Structure formats: C-alpha cells, structure tokens
Amino acid sequence: MLSAGALGACGFTPTYGPGGGGYPLVNRVRIPAPDSGDSYVLVRELEQRLGRVSAPQYDLALKLNVFEQSLAVTSDNTTTRFNVVGNLDYSLTETASGTIIGSGKVNSFTGYSATGSTVATLASQGDAHERLMVILSDMLVARLTADLARSGTASGPAGQ
User: What is the pTM of this model?
Assistant: First the structure.
C-alpha cells in the first residue's frame, strides 16, 4: 500500500492510464495485416497493447525480418542451440496529414535448444519465435509512445 501511494506522489502515471504517454495510441493505430506466422503473433501482441481501430488516426507500417543462427555446434557438426534474431523496421504516420510521426528499427533475439526429440525441438523453436515477437512488440510500443510524445501531436482519447 505504501509503495502504491509513493508512486502516485512522485508523479508516476501508468502508460495506458488517463494522461499516460501511451494513451493517445490506444484504439487509434491501424496495424497492417499479418503475412506470416511470426507477423501474425506480432500483430496479435500489438493489438493487445494498442487495441483494434475503426477510425485510425495513425497508420503503422512494418517490415519484419526473422532469421535463425546456429549457435552451438558439436564436433560431429550437429547444431544444438539456435538464436532467433528479429529486426523490425517501422514507420508511424498521421493519417490526416501524412506526416511521419516516427520511424526506426527495433531488434532483439531469443534462443532455443535442439538437443531433445524432434517434437521438443519444434516446440522450442515455435516458443522462441513467439517470445521474440512479444519482445519486439513491447519494444515497438515503447518507441511509438516516445515518438508520439516527441512529436507533440499526442492528444487525449477520441471523444475528449
């Protein structure tokens, strides 16, 4: 209880709460349709954070590149560990004016082990790809929030 009171006293505002930095993005960003399994998970995660929009104020353009790197190779040339690397280029544009609010790139990686059965390896691989999309979506939303705040175009929720 004391820590919650202390946060309020120091000016802490939740990102998606009223007055928070991410609030002007909620239900206002048109996210492109997915075109791969990885982009499906990325779009799903972005929609959980930003909501779905019917009358967009912003358009988000995305270019996702995901690849795997062999990380640990045994003496008999068997790969036992992989990194899954993701690069996400983005651009946020104000729909009405066509003004680019922000653009850039977020990058991260996850890994998985290939030492179990084929089924276990495939499950680990799928999990690593999904974790990477969660990481990239979190990083992207943070960047979008910062871009919007820096641009000075942030406003309250629709209808206010």
Answer: 0.81
